[in-house]
Amino acid sequence: MIAKPDPVIIQGGMGAAVSAWPLARAVAKTGQMGVVSGTALDLVLCRRLQLGDLGGDLRRAMAEFPFPAMIEPILERYFIPGGKAPGQPFISCAMPSVSPTQRQLELLVVANFVEVYLAKEGHDGLVGINYLEKIQAPTLASLFGAMLADVDYVLMGAGIPRAIPGILDQLSRGEPVELSLHVSGAEGDDNFVTRFSPEEFTAGEVPWLKRPKFLAIIASPALATMLARKSSGKVDGFVVEGPTAGGHNAPPRGTMQLDERGEPIYGERDVPDLNAIRSIGLPFWLAGSCGTPKRVSEALALGAAGVQVGTAFAFCEESGFREDIKREVLAMVRAGTVDVRTDPRASPAGFPFKVLQLAGSMSDEAVCNERTRMCDLGFLRQAYKQPDGSLGWRCPAEGIDAYVRKGGDEADTHGRKCVCNGLLTNVGLGQVRDNEVFEQPLVTSGDDVRSIVNFLSTSDADSYSAKDVVECLLADVVTPV
Fold first, then answer.
1. Is residue 93 a contact partner of residue 47, using CB atoms and an 8 Å limit?
2. Taking the C-alpha atoms of 115, 119, 125 and 128 in order, what is their torsion angle to the nearest 10 degrees?
3. Which positions ≥6 away from 43 have C-beta within 8 Å?
4. Is 435 a residue whose pLDDT tops 90?
5. What is the pTM of this model?
6. Of residues 353, 373, 355, the one with CA closest to residue 364
7. Where does residue 298 rank: exposed (0-12), middle (13-18), buried (19+ CB within 10 A)?
8. Are 329 and 323 a contacting pair, CB within 8 Å?
9. Does 479 score more than 80 pLDDT?
């Protein structure tokens, strides 16, 4: 098989279901790399099924899953023909667990398979999947599901993913895998891990799978060098992300200092040394405000293989954002009123998080304060060692009393927002609470959101496609004959 060339453009893996399969497929069909978000895909699948799977795409992909006996229980529990009533709550699936049941594993594996399968359907382009290293409990089963669908690349940031390359090697051979967990309060002789066995999961029908390439999302040459030398397997390249990128950002190096808007101050130390990264000898892509033809050309001139672009794709026709959110953001960009704030406190994950200021959303402190604090999705929970030595979970965005009872510091709860529920609401999958109280969105975006008008075909157009973005970004790139 002839290896496919590296893409010039990698579409960012944004939020829960913003980078969903329609967007990734549209980008991959242009010859660049489409990427699906791997965050909360089990929850995304079960809520999409409860909305009725009106186009039948999910069930079509599920019919191709190689272990068909696992599909019917999922459909029986979650599929609602015609969709649930708008004011009816979603039935939720179980929170992430380090010791999931077989049914929980099946939902995870199927959900990741479905997302990648649909993204790869109907073309021979490249498709990747993006995970957060901070979200560890679902990782092993999620990787297996994506590999069953022949995913081409795995991308991972928000942590130090040293173990993932070796895990991909083992899963490709059908071997059991384990992942050490970050556990607050753990001591040297503790061994907190999560495990997954393809043989046990499939009752002995272990498939041999293609090993996808692995790209680590990094913000410093020191981390890139360490991963290249000390990871458990081969690292195939890097996405070098700057602090203007959307979603979670690496914190500034050194002591955190804030400006007059309460945003982290980034300086010269936070600018990656591209000479050092280039000297490692692996392909790398630049990310963070790279959504212009000029930035693409500059990246190539600096020795990069290309760029990763998120924000430009986030508001295109194929993205998962609700249509009303896309329209409002575009209107704000045109009016010159759009504002993105890097919030050092919003995310329970502890990383600075970019929040687009949108009226009526969780960016508004009044709206945020009206919400009853709870953690019912749990993707950004933190594992901690309980007094009896067992594993516990807490979230700085849950009820303050509950967090403190679990040994958390009350100061850690100040300013925290429920990112999990907010991101699901962004894509039309928000929960309905008692008395038809709806969760509100929490929109994240990169700093270069102001440039999305450049992708409109005319001054009065109200939308643009993923293909429009790719064609614009590659306008100055000379393609080899």
1. no
2. -30
3. 16, 92, 93, 377, 424, 429
4. no
5. 0.95
6. 355
7. middle
8. no
9. no
Predicted confidence at residue 150, as pLDDT, reads: 97
Q: How would you label 244-278 residue by residue, b for 16+ Cβ within 10 Å and e otherwise? A: bbbbbbbbbeeeeeeeeeebbebeeebebebeebe
Residues paired with residue 216 on neighbouring β-strands, in sequence order: 156, 238
**Residue 353 vs residues 102, 183, 223, 424, 445: alpha-carbon distances, Å:** 34, 22, 20, 16, 9
Domains within the chain, CATH numbers bracketed: 9-323+456-473 (3.20.20)
Average pLDDT over residues 449-467: 91
Sign of CA dihedral 162, 287, 421, 413: positive
**Amino acid (1-letter code) at residue 359:** A
Rounded to an integer, what distance in angstroms lies between the CA atom of residue 425 and that of residue 390? Answer: 33
For residue 432, count other CB atoms closer than 10 A to its CB. Answer: 16
> What is the spatial distance between Cα 269 and Cα 264, in angstroms, rounded to a whole number?
13
The crossing angle, in degrees rounded to 10, of helices 139-148 and 164-172 is 50
What confidence tier does 481 reach under pLDDT thresholds 50, 70, 90?
A: very low
The reported pLDDT for the residue numbered 115 is 98
Non-local CB neighbours of 179 within 8 Å, separated by 6+ positions: 136, 139, 140, 163, 167, 193, 194, 195
